[in-house]
């Protein structure tokens, strides 16, 4: 009999057993020597929590408010291309599982399922759309209009990808998408090599004028994803964004940039509450979410573990991953005497040697 999955690491193993090697490498891999990829997770191994005892916090309140909407916990699903590579239900399973738990999903530009059916499945839970800007702006504009009509509540402009990072695993595997894996929300149909497609189609000259351009074509809130320094965070605030996502794209873009948890404090200090600050990269335990909030984030997004859950068991698998994170977060809050997210202050964490 198979043991139940108790941790996100258990789901990772289950997924690996089920997936073909090139697809696994596409999911798991990072750019270059994968130092940044490894650093994202390792940064959380340096965190030491400082509990406050005899402050009863059973059944802690994990709810948070982001852009006027209540989330069941400060946890969301990061945008990732082609969930259909992990499971035929793809993003539909992901959105159902997240929405059932009151958690938001950011749908990738390269989602494998149509945003109309995803919005219906979200059943009132927040659904955001991630944007890559194409050289042909009309493609991006049509994508925005379609998602907005379907009910997307915010746009997440990815700003760390003027070109795709050098993902050596994919180069070695000559990774190609199977013909049935196609972007469901773009005109122009499918492609086989994500790297070659990005080189040909994504706009390498994107600059901060993209924010006012987005404002001119949509009334949705705009967040930027991929900020790693305080000066860029200030530029984003000046550009009038509605939120910043501290991200290094899960180590998939420029190897050698810091772990996101390391970059977070200077960004939170620079932004000083002017807009919500979210983070993704290496979050694998409920207590990692606690650490993100202590260091200045308003919420944390989870990437690969969601694909692991999806590959392991479709909607139930994603649900299992999210339930573990929620339970671990509650556990960590209870045991640190943290009754609500407002109790999570910088003093809750110190930095030590990696475990
Ligand atoms: C991504 N990521 C990503 N980001 C984005 O803005 N648009 C996208 O289409 C994708 N696609 C994508 C595919 C896959 C397979 C992965 C693993 C990642 C990056 C993603 O949003 C996020 O930044 C990281 O995945 C977060 O790190 P963890 O949780 O995977 O460590």
TrEMBL record:
<dbReference type="InterPro" id="IPR008259">
    <property type="entry name" value="FMN_hydac_DH_AS"/>
</dbReference>
<keyword id="KW-0285">Flavoprotein</keyword>
<dbReference type="InterPro" id="IPR037396">
    <property type="entry name" value="FMN_HAD"/>
</dbReference>
<dbReference type="InterPro" id="IPR000262">
    <property type="entry name" value="FMN-dep_DH"/>
</dbReference>
<dbReference type="InterPro" id="IPR013785">
    <property type="entry name" value="Aldolase_TIM"/>
</dbReference>
<dbReference type="Pfam" id="PF01070">
    <property type="entry name" value="FMN_dh"/>
</dbReference>
<keyword id="KW-0288">FMN</keyword>
<comment type="similarity">
    <text>Belongs to the FMN-dependent alpha-hydroxy acid dehydrogenase family.</text>
</comment>
<keyword id="KW-0560">Oxidoreductase</keyword>
<protein>
    <submittedName>
        <fullName>Alpha-hydroxy acid oxidase</fullName>
    </submittedName>
</protein>
<dbReference type="InterPro" id="IPR012133">
    <property type="entry name" value="Alpha-hydoxy_acid_DH_FMN"/>
</dbReference>
<feature type="domain" description="FMN hydroxy acid dehydrogenase">
    <location>
        <begin position="1"/>
        <end position="354"/>
    </location>
</feature>
